[in-house]
Amino acid sequence: MSQWITEEQTPHLRLSAEAEEVLYSGESEFQKIEVFKSKEYGMMLALDGVFQTSEREEFIYHMIENHPKLTVKIGDGIGFMAEAEDYYDVIIVDCSDPIGPGEGLFTEEFYKNTLKALKADGLFVQQTESPMLHQPLVEKVFGYVNNHFPIARLYTAFIPLYPAGMHCFTLGSKTFDPLKWTPNREQTFETKYYNEGIQKAAFALPNFVKNYLPSK
Length: 216
What we know:
It is globular and about 55 Å long. The protein has helices spanning 58-65, 77-83, 108-117, 135-148, 196-201, 207-210; strands at residues 3-10, 13-27, 32-38, 42-47, 50-54, 88-93, 118-127, 151-158, 166-173. It has a 5-stranded antiparallel beta sheet with strand order 1-2-3-4-5, with no helix packed on it. Strands 6-7-9-8 form a 4-stranded mixed beta sheet, sandwiched between helices. Helix 2 (77-83) packs across helix 3 (108-117). 23% of the residues lie in helices and 34% in strands. The protein contains 6 helices and 9 strands, in the order E-E-E-E-E-H-H-E-H-E-H-E-E-H-H.
């Protein structure tokens, strides 16, 4: 018998994946965790019933947010930002959805602290859900960033697993404007998604998104 894992993306929209095998299903003190092998996307991870990533298309999300090399520190990221000052060149907030443990990462206080934690030419980026299905959240978060950062930009990527397939990322910068970016070095490694054209095109927003974003 087929086994299907379903995410309720809105009260009126669901996405289901047929699972060959459920490798793990359990509860931590924070959330429900499911790891399973799907027939369409390979290995998949779901948290609290929300699909996070899959073997087949994870490269899109991770390339569009451009994960750097790092030192891992395990702890309260919200508290960590509150204590940091003039320390980071780049802050990448690769967070879960704004429910449960992730809620505090979508508040105005968090963005004020993120600004404080960056160096004078620093920038931050955060995944901020679907500009089609989560308009109130996208508008609110962009407004917070726009209020506190000298430069605020939104960019998009098409991620098949996520609600409506259209996902957005909010960027706040103290100095550098991605709309004025020009290549300053040759790409010497292969990528499956990112290229120079994507770098520029990602910031070209459809009018329905531009029209609801607050401006300076």
